[in-house]
């Protein structure tokens, strides 16, 4: 009898261990087979055209900053009037590389500071660089002055997949920067390499004292999370949680909740496979890596991410809006009360959508990855 009770106790203990919250992981949702709607609840107005626009960001006065991959920055009014900004540094614009993201500083009204990323030319390739500059406007002209390199990728790389997405914490005290693996997958698991990481820094580029590896020095001190492939979306939800999306290989685009010190597995695991056809172990086989709660196979090639806040699309409040390059769509993701995200709608846009932003009046703005690529304004249908 004692032997039976002992065996039963061991069995119950093992069951409790399996069910313990630390070991239980919700199954990832694959939204890759979802179909885009031809009919959308919004009107689309073309505002202006550009040569392969890459990123948009709103200034406090309602105008937009817009980057073109080839190396130009514009200030654009909501009516479509353009002012080209002088003082942009030389850009290595080849393949996926070029002039990347842009964001006004949280204190822009007083500092006039903007942050932007680009691929800087170098012998044998390029490196990703984050720059802070002052936007000076006078007499109808605009120029970037006092340019300062806040962070530079120390390793020159030949490949694309630069990442380069900038986002500030809601309190404006810290800056997050995504860096892709630059087509060198192993670098994403190399603690001493900047590639395949999400970095957290102070606005001047220094290391915050509460970073998970702040005392280790080098790139490790700035590292917030690791094991990323090509992160092209990084944004805070209204509850203060940081979400990221990244492009997978052949399958396995990911939507991730980013937490300090975690490893998201690339290239050891993925929900996609190599372009050569060689399989990659799935996330489910390696629980020590953080699995995406939502992924896409087939891929959508996500680019641009914003959480909707506004009155125009009141039913969308809190939704994540994602541009999709390969599926030529605008994707809406809802995160439920348990923290599980899922794609709820996908709207056909008839072109590759590179970035998404929301204006203060609640209108949604998009740019197309094309030449000419349009700047679009979405407003609700009556």
UniProtKB/TrEMBL annotation:
Keywords: Signal. It comes from the Bacteria. Residues 1-26 form the signal peptide. Residues 50-377 form the Glucose/Sorbosone dehydrogenase domain. It holds the Pfam family GSDH. Transmembrane segments: none annotated. SUPFAM superfamilies: Soluble quinoprotein glucose dehydrogenase. This is Dehydrogenase. It comes from Falsochrobactrum shanghaiense.
């Amino acid at each position: 009898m004692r032997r039976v009770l002992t065996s039963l106790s061991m069995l119950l203990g093992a069951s409790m261990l399996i069910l313990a919250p630390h070991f239980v992981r919700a199954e990832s949702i694959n939204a890759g087979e979802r179909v885009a709607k031809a009919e959308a609840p919004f009107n689309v107005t073309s505002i202006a055209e550009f040569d392969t626009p890459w990123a948009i960001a709103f200034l406090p006065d309602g105008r937009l900053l817009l980057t073109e991959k080839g190396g130009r920055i514009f200030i654009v009014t909501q009516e479509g009037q353009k002012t080209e900004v002088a003082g942009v540094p030389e850009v290595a614009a080849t393949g996926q590389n070029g002039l990347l993201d842009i964001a006004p500083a949280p204190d822009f009204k007083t500092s006039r500071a903007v942050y932007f990323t680009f691929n800087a030319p170098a012998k044998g390739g390029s490196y990703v660089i984050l720059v802070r500059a002052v936007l000076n406007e006078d007499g109808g002209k605009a120029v970037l002055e006092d340019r300062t390199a806040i962070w530079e990728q120390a390793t020159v790389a030949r490949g694309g997949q630069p990442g380069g997405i900038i986002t500030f914490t809601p309190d404006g005290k810290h800056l997050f920067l995504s860096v892709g693996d630059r087509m060198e997958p192993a670098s994403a698991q190399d603690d001493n390499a900047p590639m395949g990481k999400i970095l957290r820094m102070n606005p001047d580029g220094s290391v915050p004292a509460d970073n998970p590896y702040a005392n280790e020095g080098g790139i490790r001190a700035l590292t917030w999370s690791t094991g990323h492939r090509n992160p092209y979306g990084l944004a805070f939800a209204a509850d203060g949680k940081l979400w990221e999306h990244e492009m997978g290989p052949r399958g396995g685009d990911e939507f991730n909740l980013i937490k300090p010190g975690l490893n998201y597995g690339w290239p050891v695991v993925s929900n996609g496979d190599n372009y050569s056809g060689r399989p990659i172990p799935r996330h489910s086989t390696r629980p020590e890596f953080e699995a995406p709660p939502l992924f896409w196979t087939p891929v959508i090639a996500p680019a641009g991410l914003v959480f909707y806040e506004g009155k125009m699309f009141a039913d969308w409040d809190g939704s994540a809006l994602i541009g999709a390059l390969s599926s030529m769509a605008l994707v809406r993701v809802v995160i439920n009360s348990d923290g599980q995200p899922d794609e709820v709608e996908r709207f056909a846009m008839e072109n590759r959508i590179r970035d998404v932003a929301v204006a203060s009046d609640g209108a949604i703005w998009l740019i197309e990855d094309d030449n000419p690529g349009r700047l679009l304004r979405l407003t609700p249908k009556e």
